[in-house]
Amino acid sequence: MSAIQFKIEKRAPGCRARAGTLTTPHGVIQTPAFVPVGTKANVKGILPDALGKLGAQVVLANTYHLYLQPGEKIVQDAGGLGKFMGWEGPTMTDSGGFQVFSLGAAFGKTISKFTKEDLEVSPPSEKPVIYDEDVASQHGQLAVIDDEGVTFTSHLDGSLHRFTPERSVEIQHALGADIFFAFDECTSPTEPYEYQKEAMDRTHRWAKRSLDYHRRLEYEEKKQARTLLLASASGHAQSAMRDVVSGQAIFGIVQGGRHEDLRKESAREIASLGFDGIGIGGSFSKEDMRSALAAAVGELPEELPRHFLGIGEPGDILEGIANGMDLFDCVAATRIGRHGSIYTRHGIAHLKGEKYRTDFTLLSDVGLTKSHMGVEFTLAYMAHLVRSGEMLGSVICSMHNVGFILNLVAGAREAILNGRFDDYRADFIRDYYI
RNA sequence: GCAUCGGUGGCGGAGUGGUCAAUCGCAACAGACUGUAAAUCUGUCGGGCAUAGCCCUACGAAGGUUCGAAUCCUUCCCGGUGCA
Q1: In the 8-state DSSP scheme, what is residue A362?
Q2: Closest residue by Cα to residue A372 from A393, A347, A395, A401
Q3: Helices (H) and strands (E) in chain A, counts
Q4: CA–C1' span, A111 to B20, in Å?
């Protein structure tokens, strides 16, 4: 019995897009849905109440970051991630798998979730298997992978830490999100085919271990909860126990790099294991995303919810929706907002630009709906805040951007339900990418 | 008035005979950012052009010393400080 229930309400003709509802212990998520990222138990710059008003239904936090700070025990003692951060709706946690990549292969390099330049694939090489005191510094990275797990050097204080699939699941149980992800290895697109295959196989083994350990913990937690309930615990404890009884859902992650055959294989394998949902991960160069996604989705069962990890930009989200993805998370909305850029119907506007100093267009007029915030601001005012380094500039831009993406996805859902998703997507793309 | 220290690119501030169109910071201008190592990072930043190079004008002003001066000397102008 899964902790979540997914129901498809309507499919778009001519593509894989679908609208559905995902019921979690903390509420219903109408899909497709954008999941704002709150890595360290906060969506940077946005209060939970405001986030809800912008239309957010669910937030995603990060295992690696919360494990390091403040430590999962504190979050658990607070009553779980949602209670800790003051968010009443559904929550998710990422497994720390992405940090294997960003602190490992991608550390100190220009590669990230996306890479624009033509990538030079590295020749096959011996991977360090055993962690050595100096390996991390030798390789200029903070994470070193072996078959059992990953050894991290904390980016905060340099201390040494070890994640295995079991440990990641254990931490994520303590964090208590409604949905969490299996521990995976996100590879660099510069790795050769042989390594992509090797990493994918490892991710599959880790997926199995994550799922097994989740089942085991789930069993023990429920048994313990029943015992405590029977012993008539306090009201607070009972409420906490109800969360435990309602349980958590776990999503497995498809990898396979840019290679369609590996993506298909990975999708089939992950789908066969019995996860509550599927995540599609990876680091891409732009042109590979589409083919890798299509290849993977073609192998996935219809009835499981699908989450496109770390996506994305407006165009990529619509691409994902058209390819049958249901959930999206991305840091871009808050990050570019914090850095002074905003989404508009006609693309991204860099408010630091000289031309915005005297542009008295209303912020709400460049968005997708009239206003996300209930107060009108001009671009000139925003440009001033951004230019003068005021934190409110970052806050308002972040709110605007998260609101923009939430509106975009909500609009896509409406369009699917009304049978005009293709037009909706085409209209948006035409205006956005001039 | 005397003494003393100082006047460098939009600002602050290095440099004290050649490798100086001049370190660096700020501002400005442009760009990047897709499961957050990020309120961060990158590039440009005297003028001109055929822009991995070349030319011109420049370190308060004017002279001078020197093969060569932002750097040394003289005078003047301006500012800080001290003494009258």
Answers
A1: B
A2: A401
A3: 17, 18
A4: 38
**Could you report the per-residue pLDDT of A220-254, keeping only the tens digit for each?**
988 887 887 777 656 666 666 666 567 999 999 99
H helices of A23-179, in order, are: 48-54, 63-68, 72-77, 81-85, 97-100, 135-139, 165-175
Tokens of A188: 């660099």
Positions of A annotated as catalytic residues are: 94, 329
Nucleotide closest to A280 measured between CA and C1'? B35
pLDDT tens track for A17-57: 999 999 999 999 999 999 999 999 999 999 999 999 999 99
CA dihedral A166, A28, A9, A330 (to 10 degrees): -60
Q: What is the pTM of this model?
A: 0.92
Question: Above 0.95 for ipTM, yes or no?
Answer: no
Q: Show which positions of strand B are touched by protein (CB under 7 A).
A: 27-41
What is the distance in angstroms measured between the alpha-carbon CA of A46 and the sugar C1' of B66? 67
Q: How far apart are CA A362 and CA A371, in angstroms?
A: 9
Q: Burial, A75: exposed, middle or buried (Cβ in 10 Å; 0-12, 13-18, 19+)? A: buried
